[in-house]
Design a protein that fits this description.
The chain is built from 16 helices and 14 strands. It is globular, with a radius of gyration of 22 Å. The N and C termini lie far apart (60 Å). About 3% of the residues have low confidence.
Length: 406
């Protein structure tokens, strides 16, 4: 098998009605049944057998750590302006991105995260304190509820939005899976309506003094942000992060359930820095942030394959974070050794701007869960369910909460 010859089991499956394959020149099917059955194993196989693969829609996916790094860091050849919709800041290139990024990053400084930590900590403690111990819990559902409450506390949003936002997270996930553009557009419009209802009341002189109001008054290049820009930023902060925090929680809590010795070590007391490194390494092993897109601005060669100008390129973070040439055994747990190469939050000038907040939220939730229990164990009576592409991690992560010894 040559370096770019697709594995038979990963090439697009024939249409069961006609027996014909879609995409005559495709190397793989990103949503085919074999990928859906075990996405991580499929990405591992592509990385070894067809490291730059073309899908049936014509998009190229890069699977190796080196190729993903190259695409992520070459901002001239690979543009982030891939969407028809405004995406601030990471869907913008050049000086506009620099200006947007500066405006957004002021909300995630170390000082602001330190001020926010006790607020988010109280949210985590109250939520975990309400769990039944001993008892069973779905870590993904726990993460989703925590994300809604934590983000609402941070942004100053009313608590009575919780159920509406949780319903939106579920509907958005289902719409994404459906691949129905009309359904996806309706769900997106619903979320935009929620955001606009919150921003409208903050345009008055007596608006509440919270992060949402502060964002409305933020200026970029000497001008106020437009309504569409504000909605785009808030959509990025919340719409994406609510689902992402749920997936991260599922991956982290199940990993801890499977590794009681790591639980014991963390319960013994570790610094924030060590815990953050542990969380990053767990997410590297099973990265729920599957991919990002770019579009080429000129012809380029990737992994020995010619990619024309204007073609879509997908960066497979999940695969890159498991590249044996960088990490050795991709499942080996080495927070310190692997940290310099970990791409969970991206790399380059388009690295996730909300990483400090995501890390803070995950850290305080894990600390609260460990403090409230004697052990977290796998649930023998409920099976884990993998999330489906384009998302990663687990859709359902059942665990058992064991009380602390008397």
């Amino acid at each position: 098998m040559t370096e770019h010859e697709p594995a038979d089991e990963l090439s697009p499956d024939p249409d069961p009605r006609t027996g014909r394959r879609h995409g005559a020149h495709a190397d793989w099917n990103p949503r085919g049944p074999r990928v859906r059955r075990d996405p991580v194993a499929a990405y591992d196989a592509l990385r070894a057998q067809c490291p730059v693969a073309r899908g049936p829609d014509g998009a190229w996916t890069v699977f190796t750590h080196a190729d993903v790094m190259r695409v992520a860091l070459d901002h001239e050849t690979f543009s982030n302006a891939v969407s028809r919709h405004l995406q601030v800041p990471n869907g913008v290139d050049g000086p506009a991105h620099t200006a947007y990024r500066a405006a957004v990053e002021q909300f995630f400084t170390p000082e602001r995260m330190r001020e926010l930590e006790p607020v988010v900590g109280r949210v985590a403690q109250a939520l975990v304190g309400g769990l039944v111990v001993p008892g069973a819990v779905d870590a993904v559902a726990l993460g989703a509820r925590f994300a809604v409450r934590a983000q609402s506390a941070w942004l100053g949003w009313p608590a009575d939005l919780e159920e509406e936002l949780l319903a939106w997270v579920r509907d958005n996930r289902d719409a994404t899976r459906s691949r129905d553009p009309e359904r996806t557009a309706r769900v997106a419009a619903r979320f935009d309506a929620i955001i606009r209802s919150l921003t409208d009341v903050r345009r008055a002189a007596d608006a509440p003094q919270d992060v949402t109001t502060e964002l409305l008054r933020t200026r970029v290049d000497g001008r106020a942000l437009s309504d569409d820009e504000v909605v785009s930023i808030l959509r990025n902060w919340t719409g994406g992060d609510l689902g992402s925090m749920a997936l991260c929680t599922g991956v982290v809590v199940t990993y801890l359930a499977d590794h009681p010795e790591l639980q014991d070590h963390l319960r013994g007391g570790v610094s924030d820095r060590e815990l953050d490194a542990v969380l990053d390494e767990i997410l590297r092993i099973d990265d729920p942030f599957v991919s990002n897109r770019r579009v080429t601005t000129r012809p380029v060669e990737l992994g020995g394959r010619r990619v024309g100008a204007g073609e879509r390129v997908v960066l497979s973070w999940t695969s890159a974070n498991r590249d044996e040439r960088v990490f050795g055994d991709p499942d080996a747990f080495d927070p310190v050794g692997n940290a310099p190469y970990n791409l969970v939050y991206g790399i380059g000038k388009h690295v996730c701007p909300g990483r400090p907040l995501a890390t803070l939220e995950l850290r305080v939730l894990v600390r609260a869960l460990l403090a409230a229990t004697g052990a977290v164990r796998p649930d023998p009576d409920a099976a884990r369910v993998r999330e489906q592409p384009p998302a990663g991690g687990l859709a359902s992560a059942p665990v058992l909460l064991v009380p602390r010894p008397a």
